[in-house]
Amino acid sequence: MTCPETATVENGRMELDDCFRATPSPIGAARLVREPLEGPADAVLAARWLRGEHRPVALSGAWAGGGVLLASHPVALACGEDPFVALDAQPPVRVLDAGGEAIGGGWLGWLGFGLARALEPVPPPPPRPQPLPAFDLAFHDHVVRCDADGRWWFEALWTEPRAAALDERLQTWRTRLAGPLPPAHRFDAGPLRVSAPGAAGHAAAIAETVERIAAGEVFQANICLRLEGQIEGDLLDLWVRAAGASNPAYAAYVASGDHAVASLSPELFLRGSGRIVLTEPIKGTAPLSADPATLRQSAKDRAENVMIVDLMRNDLGRVCEYGTVAVGELYEVRQAAGVWHLVSSVSGTLRADVPTAELLRATFPPGSVTGAPKVRALRVISELEATGREVYCGAIGLCSPLSGLELNVAIRTFESRAGRLWLGAGGAVGSDSSPSGEVQEALLKARGVAATAGVAVDALAVAPGVAVDALAAPVAPIVVDARPDPARGLIETVLVTDGRCVAGVAHLARLRESCAALGLTLPAGSEESIDRAAARLGSGRLRVLLDGAGAHLSTGQLPAPGTVTLRPVVLPGGLGAHKWADRALIDGLTVPGSTPLFCDLDGQVLEAGHAAVLIVEGETLIAPPLDGRLLPSLSRERTLRAAPTAGLRVVIEPFTLERARAADAVLLTSALRGPHPGELLGGPPATAAEPVCGRLALGTRSGAL
After folding, report:
1. Domain boundaries, the chain
2. By the 8 A CB rule, do 20 and 139 touch?
């Protein structure tokens, strides 16, 4: 992966530095310095002083005995493929009379849910509308804390090379805390809406999970939906408002570059001090209006909870001394934002030879947000969820040479990038789960945490009087083969005529947009190489494959003309907005004369394996919206532009498989064939599309070269 920038403070100035990759500590032997400060009583509001700081972090709640921690200006960043190793890279620290428990500094940041693929044989994730890095960990050699008794401290892992910079930071914070609190800045966020495939799609995923449980594939799986909206302003202000209003046990704010995370988590994933490790999984939810005793007595919620307790016992048992793993509190009812939860605790004594990295490899991602058995549940999540999890359901926290490891489960967590805001919500699905009940539980959790931030959550996008359970049956078989692997890169297929690329400029522009979104780079000179390859080819198909090793070109013949039969399958979330080089899924579903027709769990038609899909109703040409679930097809764009000339009105709106079967015609359009007939079983014959395709083809042949 590409290492993000980091910085160190030298002579009071920020200078770029290299990323930290090695296993020794990013700083040498240090001594703890702990200076008392005068500060405000409302410590969460003091987090506003982090505005504009380099890589700010704020923690509030039960962390390290309780209170608020503020940090910025780290001295190193974790890079490489294995972030867990970095957490073991801690300096030896000499502690004299510190005047109380201290953190001093250490690694602060988050581990994304997607790291599961580095630990277990998990297939590629669903589409990721706003991909974030796999992790973000920075080493801070100083923090500012307000402890559980309301006393403020400047704590540092003091080294002589950093003495001047640390003294400058101490004086800066002493001046800040003695002055008035910074003002709040306005932020506008929301409303948050359930992203496609919506409530109906989530219900279908739940129904499918219940069927898999009945078939013995899995005992329990945590299935989540995603709510999305926009944000104007700083996510820091959202976090300060929400953390102050709800006082969650493990709240965390982390910002870096163009993205930020504001977690209001009530759940402890791991706390390790010395060789003792503790986890407190949450499973079981009820609204605050319910009697908490009823939740504790619920057979369904108790079963969900005990399954995850057993899972966490097993995970800890992989690294703890035999006989030391024990369950403490079982089915304790605790309050969180808008809900009651059942919380249990499991602890153990790590074997003497177990480093932090091995503990995390044995337990990550948290069992309460995966299911049991964990690896099989991770596969179910990958197959049935419509969007990939980023920080959500990973872990956020700290690892200090003094206070040890402490990580939350990153639930009730807002994430933002480039003006977009999203929030994940879900729950454990068991054998007796109902689709409508699970949808309501997910939204109950989302509404509770969103309300603390003053963010609205839209109502269900379900027609009045229609039960969600009635929408829970998938319209076609659900794809269980692995999704395209983004690590294989991108592909662009271009029609070459008379030695020139048809719409070549547009194809390159789309490829560059995907590169920008995914952190890839189109090598210099690629355009000239493509032009030369097209000139040599004359006429045919040119493919550009872009991966980490560069751009690779291949040529071939054009596909044979003829009717294409569409075979519906359900792929939750679709293929996404990028054209993946990994075509194994599509090729595996393709036979001569037919191609898969990808639909989502809500029954909406997305695209075919090799082409965009359009339907005709009367004199209206209808195309599904480009909502991130399907490729922004250039041939589709040209076809829609040609429609008025062909006497067709264009409408962009979702349509279901049922509606496609009732249409007057179904047609496909691709870069290599342009508009051509599609035949859908139970739908109009291919001959119905031939006249329309002929009219549209006349208008698309003048496409830009």
Report:
1. 6-471, 486-556, 564-700
2. yes
| CATH class in words for 486-556 | alpha beta
Closest CA to 511 of 491, 535, 536, 532: 491
Tens-place pLDDT, residues 626-661: 999 999 999 999 999 999 999 999 999 999 999 999
**Distance of CA 145 to CAs 40, 101, 156, 267, 551, Å?**
11, 11, 11, 21, 50
Gyration radius (Cα) of the chain, Å: 27
**Count of all residues that appear for the chain in the document:** 705
| Alpha-carbon span 665 to 615, nearest angstrom | 6
On whether the CB atoms of residues 495 and 541 are closer than 8 A, the answer is: yes
- Which tokens in the block code for residue 313? 């016992």
pTM of the model: 0.93
Check: CB of residue 459 under 8 Å from CB of residue 198: no
| Helices vs. strands in the chain: H and E counts, helices first | 16, 40
- pLDDT for position 16: 34
Structure confidence at residue 13 as a pLDDT band (50, 70, 90): very low
Structural contact between residues 126 and 387, judged by C-beta atoms closer than 8 angstroms:
yes
**Fold held by 6-471:** Anthranilate synthase (3.60.120)
d(CA 484, CA 586): 9
pLDDT higher than 70, residue 128: yes
In 5-105, the DSSP E strands lie at 6-10, 13-17, 30-37, 57-61, 67-71, 76-77, 93-94
Letter for the amino acid at 407?
Answer: L
Q: Note whether 686 and 661 are within 8 A (CB).
A: no
Q: What is the pLDDT of residues 426-454, one digit of tens each?
A: 999 999 999 989 999 999 999 999 999 99
What is the CATH code for 564-700?
Answer: 3.20.10.10
- Assign 203 to helix, strand or coil: helix
Shortest CA distance to 33 belongs to which of 101, 107, 95, 106? 95
Residue type, 704: A
Tell me the C-alpha distance between 56 and 256, whole Å. 7
